Amino acid sequence: MAERKSDAEKYFEAVLDGRITASKKIRKLARIILPQIRNGHKGWHFDIERAERPVEFVERYCRVPSGKLGQPLKLEPFQKAIIETAFGFVDEDGNRRFQEVLVIMGRKNGKSSLLAALELYMLIADREGAPQVYNVANSEDQAKLAYNAAIRILRQSKRLQRYARKRADDVYCSRNLGYIKPLTSQTRNLDGLDVHFAVIDELSAIVNPDLYDLVKQGMSAREQPMIFIITTNGFVRNGIFDDRYDYAARWLDGKVDDDRFLPFIYELDEREEWTEEKCWIKANPGLGTIKKIESLRGHVKQALQNSRFRPTVMVKDFNMPENASVAWLDFEEAVNEQTFDLKSMGFRYGVVGFDAADTIDLNAACMLMMRPNDPQIYGVHMYWLPEDALRDVSESGDRKERDNVPYEQWIARGLLRTVPGNKVHRDVLLQWLEEMKADYDVYTYAVGFDPWRMDDTSVRNLEAYVGKSRVVPVRQGAQTLSMPMKQLKADYAANRIVDNHNPITEWCRMNVSVRVDVNDNIQPDKKQSNPSNRIDGFMAELDAYIVLNNIMDEYQQAI
């Protein structure tokens, strides 16, 4: 007789086989969690009874806190999957694995009701002595949304009223001496918290990260505490929301090793999907059951006609950030493991992009080449860094390498060159182009560059080398870069750009974020605006790509 499957296992199976339309990040989570449900993970196993216990509590004892009062709070498959995954993994002593659950999804998908019901479960039925349960928010009004919803659920259940009651400042459970309270940055005596369960409704509204940090620190004395976050995206940038979102993205990509963290990110995969109704469910898993599709249609229609309303829809309904840097490429797009032998390929001409740095930063050049009757574009990159930049890190005693990447290994492999002093002179580009001609018989057909970073003498030298008409300034703004970037992204996804699996280039690509204007035009930015997240290799590649596409007919005739 086959073992009974949990709703979580069924949900993740449906995500992976396409029965449920889901975002890339939910599919990544499914690929991670589904084997762990079936086979366990390290010292934890999936206990289906522990997983279903909070689900049964919610559906048996809780009533909807607004709208059709008195109706049972029926959980949707995605809600059961979230709860069962969060609560089902336990160790040999029965203690839960996950201590932080992050759920990002569009507004009106039942998040406040779900949080309120879970608060009551953790107060009454989690078998914890004196549990302290907190509604955490930036303001008192926000903190009381789920708190007041919990009170309304409590007042509709005589069974729950046997265990808990509303007092002046909290909801109190006399049987285990626990309580539920709102908690904001204005709350007195934030120190000394002994948190068993904390819920955050709208992390994106929290301006001061200290509140989140205090709650996390207040969990340290409990055996199985949990912070449960359900939020939409927001308009506050570079705050705690962006920090946790980036952490979740890196966790899903395998770049963060944290067995206590669990992210569910419901969002559109591409901004262009916001006008495609079939994609809306990616950001709104309760669409058609909890969230009315007619309402969302109305919002989209209004946003199409009113550019001022569009950011609200993009952020709150589809979790697409506005007025901020947005992660641009995923790992599969940024990395192409295909390689080629430059000497045997028979290239004749290449189009070059150059991204020069001001002082001690990375300098990058990219040559893109094509062959007759071959749709792929082949790229060769070279990078330069001043010796002083590496020496400063070495002499500082810091064990980390500059920018936390293996520059010394890249130098040893010949992918990166150092030059004396604290600045890379522009003539390194001409020297490299001469090497490409002498060593591989590849001639430079045209050069694209950022005019902001190039002095007149360097431009004249390039014009003398290539020809004045083939030295092309590439203006670094959305008007020039937006469409080529979208085309380049499609070529990355199709593995059309082959760069010999260059790790520096791949690192630069993965550091690219984009800024988006109200017309959906994009331009590149450094990830999290962090100067250590270098994008120079991508910018050189983009400049070359723009010039190549602009002269494609002429270039095809030359090769």
Quick rundown:
The chain is of the alpha/beta class and 559 residues long.
Describe the structure.
This protein is α/β, with parallel strands linked by helices and 559 residues long. It folds into 2 domains: 7-265, Rossmann fold; 331-558, Nucleotidyltransferase, domain 5 (2-Layer Sandwich), CATH 3.30.420. It is 39% helix and 17% strand. It has 20 helices and 20 strands. The longest helix has 16 residues, at 24-39. The protein is elongated, with a radius of gyration of 28 Å.
Outline the fold blueprint.
Elements: H1 7-16, H2 24-39, E1 45-46, H3 48-61, H4 77-88, E2 89-90, E3 100-104, H5 111-124, E4 132-136, H6 140-155, H7 158-161, E5 164-166, E6 171-173, E7 178-183, E8 195-201, H8 209-217, E9 226-231, H9 240-252, E10 261-265, H10 293-305, H11 310-316, E11 325-327, H12 331-334, E12 349-355, E13 363-369, E14 377-386, H13 387-395, H14 407-412, E15 416-419, H15 427-440, E16 443-449, H16 456-466, E17 471-473, H17 478-493, E18 497-498, H18 503-510, E19 512-516, E20 522-526, H19 536-550, H20 552-558
Parallel strand pairs: 3-9, 3-10, 4-7, 4-8, 8-9, 12-16, 14-15, 14-18, 16-17
Antiparallel strand pairs: 1-2, 5-6, 6-7, 11-19, 12-13, 13-14, 19-20
Helix pairs in contact: 1-2, 1-4, 3-4, 5-6, 10-11
